[in-house]
Amino acid sequence: MSDKIKYIFLTIGIAAIIVMCLTFDVSLAELYRDMQRTGIRLVAILALWGGLYAMNTMSWRVIIRGSGDCPVSFFRLLRLTVTGFALNYSTPVGLLGGEPYKILAMTPHIGGQRATSSVVLFSMMHVFSHFLFWLTSLVLYVAIEPGILLSPAAYLVIIPMALFCLAGVYFFMKGYRTGMVAKIVRILGRLPFLGKRAEKFYSARSEDLHKIDRQIAELHGQNRKSFYVSLLLEYIGRVLQCIEIFLILQVFGREASLLTFVHSFLILSFTSLFANLLFIFPLQLGGREGGFVMSSAQMGMTTEVGMFISIICRVRELFWAAIGMLFIMKEHSRKPGD
């Protein structure tokens, strides 16, 4: 990857972080009080996410090794993973930041096609695990609140959500069997503004795109173990992410009980679904805050709890986004061939 491209990614990331810091919904004094109130739990939350990023890295590494050797060390993959998520947090339309960066960084080591297929497949696995997580939360919510099934209005939410999640699962399973990169590029070719460029790209790279699709399908069809290990790591990561909210709820006197963890599970699920529907905003600005407030209220908590959760989560995101930018600088300082 050229120094010019690295500087572009670094500039985009830093600019987004600065904008987010300047547009915080609370004053610095209030932010400091909230961080003090969280106390040692904030350190635990930051450390938790270090572990979650390590699990993401293991998932990606399993995918890479499913199609050959992985000459890149685990810790460099970890740096690329953290940076990739930092860029995704910081740029509009989510995956348009971190995924190209990881592909460019891995291409010199495993080739362009393997780099692209591994990154695309990891992104698919990451999103697929979200659909499974949302489905699980739907079943869990009905299990702890069976009375909701007596309300006809509840079905207006439950049925569309279930159909949406099942459609997502079907879409990704089909994509794993046949590949989906070439199809997505063809679909982009029908959109305004992007259409001509996408069609030109498809015409020039059609063979490469279909090779990438074949590599994706081969992992699912011929290396099922790698496929399911990667998916399991991603799904477990979603469940462990609930610990963040679990710790924050204890600030408000909630017991460290199974019920509190279930509430954390449901709050995270609803919020992530709501925020991902607003993927065009950097750092999912606004969507996540609203999601936390609404989902906390649904669990019988006050608006203050939802806002507090969103503030601490935003602090954590900014912390790891800054770490990701530092990792880009480290990549920039590497000598060619290192």
- Estimated structural class: mainly alpha
**How would you classify the quaternary structure?**
single chain
Q: Could you state the order of secondary-structure elements as H and E?
A: HHHHHHHHHHHHH
> What distance separates the N and C termini?
13 Å
Protein name: Flippase-like domain-containing protein
Element layout with pairings:
Layout lengths: L2 H20 L5 H11 L1 H26 L8 H17 L4 H16 L1 H33 L7 H27 L2 H8 L6 H28 L1 H28 L6 H19 L10 H12 L4 H31 L5
Helix pairs in contact: 1-13, 3-4, 3-6, 3-10, 3-13, 4-5, 4-13, 5-6, 6-7, 6-9, 6-10, 6-11, 7-9, 8-9, 10-11, 10-13, 11-12, 12-13
Describe this structure in words.
The protein is mainly alpha-helical. The model has no long low-confidence stretch (mean pLDDT 83). It has helices at 3-22, 28-38, 40-65, 74-90, 95-110, 112-144, 152-178, 181-188, 195-222, 224-251, 258-276, 287-298, 303-333. The protein has one domain (3-333).
Which terms would index this structure?
mainly alpha, Flippase-like domain-containing protein, globular
